[in-house]
What we know:
- This protein has helices at residues 7-31, 44-61, 65-89, 99-102, 104-107, 110-125, 132-135, 139-142.
- It is an all-alpha fold.
- It has one domain.
- Helix 2 (44-61) runs antiparallel to helix 3.
- The relative contact order is 0.15.
- The model has no long low-confidence stretch (mean pLDDT 87).
Amino acid sequence: MIPDRYAPATYALFRIVFGFIFFCFGTQKMFGWFGGTVPALMSMQGAAGVIETVTGLLIMIGLFTRLAAFVASGEMAVAYFYIHVSVVAMGEGGAGLPLGLLVPLTNNGVNAALFCVAFLYMASRGSGICSVDGVIGGKGRSGSA
């Protein structure tokens, strides 16, 4: 078993990696990086790109982490239920209920489900160590006692 003294560093790594990956998804939508296509900024995909880029960066560096993670978690909940469940699973040739709703593997919603729960956890915990919030002394934002 890993000793509890490593929990703060492990959580910082968790936050940084999830923030970076979310940032990459956002830049893929906003700038076409990593093989993405650039949608219209005022479309749903464009708005998702802005949210993912901004919140991913904030989460990664640990600035306003609680708020950024809460917004990112909400975006992923909307993505899961609106896109992956209602459009993909319930659409023509989809898995239907209950598989389309309950099994992210059947509706291609694995990323959305994992990001949603991870960011909800970060919103409740704060930024922790190795964060801008911690450096500027944001005890309420960093989640430290």
